[in-house]
Amino acid sequence: MNDKEIILDESLVVSTIAFDQSIYFGQKDNGLINGVGRRQSTQLQEGLWVNGQLNGYGRVIFENGRVYVGGFKNQKKFGKGTLHFPNGAKQAGTWDGDRFTRSRSRGRS
Known about the structure:
Order of helices and strands: EEEEEEEEEE
Number of strands: 10
Distance between the termini: 42 Å
Low-confidence stretches: none
Mean pLDDT: 86
Radius of gyration: 15 Å
């Protein structure tokens, strides 16, 4: 892991961290990814990070072109969110551990 810090002001330090297969740009605390940031690997993950995992509101752009926008808990889709498909279709609903618990599918909007 290669770590470089950028101090924007005394209260906000933004880090660039290079891992083996990805790069992270955003806030960190105690050496862990914590706060708002963006991680790029085969997919783009951005949002609120807690202890190195997406927790809270975020967005993931998957390698297959799908985009999920909504809640996360421990790096998995959780709470309200929408999965957007490359063909324009959407799947919106409530998620729990990357699974739908209540869903609503819609075609192109």
